[in-house]
Design brief:
Distance between the termini of chain A: 49 Å
Radius of gyration of chain A: 23 Å
Helix content of chain A: 55-70%
Shape of chain A: globular
Number of helices of chain A: 12
Strand order of the largest sheet of chain B: 1-2-3-4
Strand content of chain B: 35-45%
Helix content of chain B: under 10%
Oligomer: heterodimer
Number of strands of chain B: 34
Number of strands of chain A: 4
Largest sheet of chain B: 4 strands, antiparallel
Structural class of chain B: mainly beta
Chain lengths: 267, 372
């Protein structure tokens, strides 16, 4: 089910783009990531708007009054909060739902990129049956395209990277390689989490958010450092796209990048 | 607050585990590669290579002595001149003493994985790598020359008296002179020499080649992932015939098995096709269906050939299309089958056994599972 609904269409789409743009796997991954992000744009927009609404709600005087008034009565507090949501037309789960829907897409994209690289026998053995027969027919309608199986193995070279291997740049005189891409991925993840974090009146939530700002970039940087550079490329394209999308939706606020400004933002 | 911090750490640790699981990091990415020499089996799997006594399945030695979880070695070892040559996923090629597993030399010139087995011939080691190169080293591990194709090399090279042959994933079958004029080489900064021009000759087969080819009496039989079997006359440097059974031959991962006047080719769809070696015509009106994927290379014996499916069914088949199930081990078999004397040797990479021997009547003789 998962394979036939998500992985196989993704693999075939990736192969199609790869062939269409002249067998460049790096560009194919970037384009494919952008297409998937564009398709999920409405979900992402909804999530951002809902987060914004929840954030604004935190500073609403009526909301703050409810919190103070019923701080010792949990049942009553929950009842009043629900009533407040209803009155203001806010859905508390609206910001979570798009994330939940996007999650399988992200995991599917991630898995399909790994499988399409096919740089080990078991991966290759799993890849070949997933190349759909209809893709061959589709390719035959477009002049200049090769039939899908003839694309195997994919050309794994992109810029200085081998897409199937972790990325490093070797500088003469240094005995180790520098993981430039992993550093860029970590930096872009930091930028993304920092820009998209929603300041809250709750100091604990803000501390949690601060931890996210540290953990998330480190985690993404570690993945980019240790896994195939094709995945690092996907992380980078995905991060940059999210930042651009955030800016287009008018949520870009450079003040969030500055330290000790959270309190001001809340007030 | 402490609880929230702990929750955050738990969430991120879980995410780390989930994503690591998604990538398959740490999981086996291939199947055991093994080679039989006289009464010893040499098997590479995970991070170690094992020498196993084929008389009783006992461990003779292992290399390295302790597991190194960061290492992955799956290419079948190459044997010759007292050496056992193994290549790993980090691009390291090492030569061990065949008798006791002590390291003789190492070569770190490759940039990608060794997936295909190396070949030792006339004092030279020919090692195909996924970085598109074929590396030719002398018996001391010194790089003599390297050749760059247009794709990864996953198959074991072949040799005859004067030539080396390589089937590549770049769709081509290459032939190299063992001896060639120094003018064909260019010196690199590392002291190695690169073959300047293309191989002496090559044939484009149109699709990637993953299964090892076989050389029989001056003819190479090689098959592709799209389902094409080709016979190449290496003396006359020409394609003799091709066979795809009107499009019914599926992707081929295994080595064709030559028996008398026939060549058996097994495909991933689970069909065995018998083809006339002289003209490439189908011997049977329809292929034999094995009931499971055929990835493991079969082996010839007196009365036919032995094959195994990815579901663990081991069976024999003869030219009259008469098949007999030898055993059902219920574990996938992807590695080459070997016949030594009256024993069928196979590797299944299961938790019960890594290597096992059955007789031709289906009785288990021994199993080998490395334990620390």
């Amino acid at each position: 089910m998962w394979e036939s609904l998500i992985i196989e269409p993704f693999i075939n789409a990736l192969l199609f783009i790869y062939d269409l743009i002249g067998e460049n796997i790096g560009l194919a991954i970037i384009l494919f990531t952008i297409i998937i992000k564009l398709i999920s744009w409405p979900l992402m927009s909804k999530q951002i708007k809902s987060s914004r609404a929840l954030q604004e709600m935190q500073n609403d005087e009526e909301w703050i009054a409810i919190q103070k008034k019923y701080k010792n009565d949990r049942d009553k507090l929950a009842q009043e909060q629900m009533s407040f949501y209803k009155t203001k037309g806010i859905s508390p789960f609206a910001s979570c739902l798009p994330t939940l829907i996007q999650f399988p897409i992200i995991i599917g994209l991630y898995q399909s990129i790994i499988q399409t690289m096919g740089n080990a026998p078991l991966q290759m053995l799993n890849l070949i049956p997933k190349i759909s027969p209809w893709l061959k027919d589709l390719f035959s309608f477009i002049p200049g395209l090769q039939e899908p199986l003839a694309l195997i193995p994919l050309n794994s070279q992109f810029l200085w990277m081998n897409i199937g291997q972790p990325e490093r740049i070797f500088i003469p005189g240094l005995s180790f390689g520098i993981p430039i891409l992993a550093i860029i991925v970590a930096a872009s993840s930091f930028l993304q989490t920092k820009l998209m974090a929603t300041p809250s009146a709750d100091s604990q939530s803000n501390q949690m958010s601060g931890m996210m700002n540290v953990y998330m970039p480190l985690l993404m940087g570690w993945f980019a450092y240790s896994l195939a550079s094709g995945l690092a490329l996907y992380f980078l394209a995905s991060n940059l796209f999210s930042i651009i999308q955030y800016a287009i939706l008018g949520r870009f606020d450079f003040k969030k990048l500055l330290p000790n400004k959270k309190a001001e933002n809340i007030k | 607050m402490k609880q929230k911090i702990i929750s955050t750490i738990v969430i991120f640790s879980s995410l780390l585990l989930i994503l690591t699981g998604c990538t398959g990091a740490g999981a086996a990415s291939s199947w055991p590669g093994y080679t039989v020499f006289e009464e010893t089996g040499y098997l590479s799997y995970g991070s170690q290579t094992f020498a196993v006594d084929l008389k009783n399945g006992s461990l003779l030695w292992r290399y390295p002595s302790d597991e190194e979880r960061s290492k992955q070695v799956y290419a079948a070892p190459a044997i010759g001149d007292g050496l056992l040559v193994i290549g790993d996923y980090d691009g390291s090629l090492i030569a061990l003493d065949q008798n006791n597993g002590t390291k003789k030399w190492g070569f770190d010139g490759a940039n990608d994985r060794y997936i295909g087995a190396a070949l030792i011939s006339d004092g030279m080691v020919y090692a195909p790598n996924s970085d598109h190169y074929l590396y030719a080293l002398d018996s001391e591990g010194n790089l003599q020359w390297k050749f760059k194709g247009d794709g990864p090399n996953w198959t074991k090279p072949l040799a005859d008296v004067s030539m080396i042959y390589l089937a590549s994933m770049d769709h081509k079958f290459y032939a190299f002179d063992k001896e060639f004029s120094p003018s064909n080489l260019v010196n690199a900064k590392d002291g190695s020499k690169t073959l300047l021009s293309n191989a002496k000759w090559s044939i484009d087969l149109g699709m990637a080649i993953i299964g090892d080819p076989v050389l029989e009496e001056g003819v190479v039989f090689v098959a592709t992932i799209e389902g094409g079997l080709f016979a190449i006359d290496v003396k006359d440097e020409k394609l003799l015939w091709s066979f795809n059974d009107n499009g019914d031959l599926g992707a081929v991962w295994s080595t064709p098995v030559v028996i008398d006047e026939a060549v058996f080719v097994a495909d991933v769809d689970g069909n065995i096709h018998a083809v006339n070696v002289l003209d490439g015509s189908a011997i049977w009106s329809s292929p034999f269906s094995a009931g499971g994927k055929l990835v493991a290379s079969g082996a010839a014996y007196q009365e036919g050939a032995v094959f195994a499916t990815d579901e663990g069914k081991i069976f024999t088949i003869n030219l009259n299309k008469e098949a007999k199930t030898i055993a059902n081990i219920e574990n996938p078999i992807y590695s080459t089958i070997n016949i030594v004397g009256e024993q069928i040797i196979f590797a299944s990479a299961s938790e019960e056994s890594l290597l096992a021997a059955y007789d031709l009547n289906g009785f288990g003789i021994w199993t080998f599972l490395p334990t620390n």
